[in-house]
Design a protein that fits this description.
Layout: E1 2-10, E2 16-25, E3 30-34, H1 41-48, E4 56-61, E5 64-65, H2 74-78, E6 81-84, H3 96-106, H4 111-124, H5 140-152, E7 158-162, H6 170-185, E8 189-193, E9 207-211, E10 214-217
Parallel strand pairs: 3-8, 3-9, 6-7, 7-8
Antiparallel strand pairs: 1-2, 1-4, 4-5, 9-10
């Protein structure tokens, strides 16, 4: 599904944030990515989503070398990925329902064919009452849950989640982890970045740890 080969990343002329990163994410797997704040977790996920370009090395995604694909190809590859960034990236002029349904609309599906699925998912993440609200009036935790729902609604081939439980309470965090685990059982490959070690207790999965720009596999 995803392979990084001796990948390095630096911003401008600064020191490398990621150094000689090598790892392979098997199709259908679930993997945690841990590390302290500033360790490079977000940068690694952005590389996988093609939002950043590595300074060196090679990245293969869906059996394609994404360091060489054209800009015209990027949107088509990204549609196969669900992503939760820490800044959420919700569209302020769309309601919560419309934000969550956006990947389905882009895929050409009709509202009558997806309305029930979207409302069921909003209920699961505790946003049923906020379906018609706009992002600016939502709390940080509510915006995060809306972003998660949008990322998983289309059952993507790959889910990249950056601190997806950072703004919710422990009970809801466990509920969201179960959602990711169920999605994984349906075939979605999951790479979840977190600094919350408690989450690792709820899913038995390999742990990749970033420290000083280097990647280590814990178990």
């Amino acid at each position: 599904m995803l392979r990084l080969e001796r990948v390095g990343l630096s911003y401008g002329r600064g020191a490398e944030v990621l150094k000689d990163v090598d790892f392979e994410l098997q199709r259908g797997s679930f993997c945690f990515l841990t590390g302290a704040s500033g360790a490079g977790k977000s940068s690694l996920l952005k590389l996988a989503f093609m939002a950043l370009h590595p300074s060196r090395g090679r990245i293969k995604l869906f059996d394609q070398d994404i360091t060489r694909v054209s800009r015209r190809q990027l949107p088509f590859l990204r549609r196969r990925i669900g992503v939760v960034f820490q800044d959420f990236r919700l569209l302020d002029h769309l309601t919560t329902f419309e934000n969550v349904a956006l990947p389905l609309r882009v895929a050409g599906k009709l509202p009558r064919n997806y309305e029930r699925d979207v409302r069921d998912l909003l209920d699961w993440v505790g946003l049923a009452k906020q379906a018609d609200s706009y992002p600016p009036v939502l709390s940080g935790g509510e915006q995060q849950r809306a972003a998660i729902a949008r990322a998983v609604i289309s059952k993507p081939e790959l889910l990249l989640a950056d601190e997806p439980t950072g703004n919710v309470d422990p009970i809801l965090a466990r509920r969201l982890i179960r959602l990711f685990a169920e999605l994984n059982k349906l075939g979605t490959t999951v790479l979840l970045a977190t600094h919350d070690m408690n989450l690792l207790k709820h899913v038995r999965a390999p742990v990749l740890h970033l420290e000083n720009g280097a990647l280590q596999q814990r178990h």
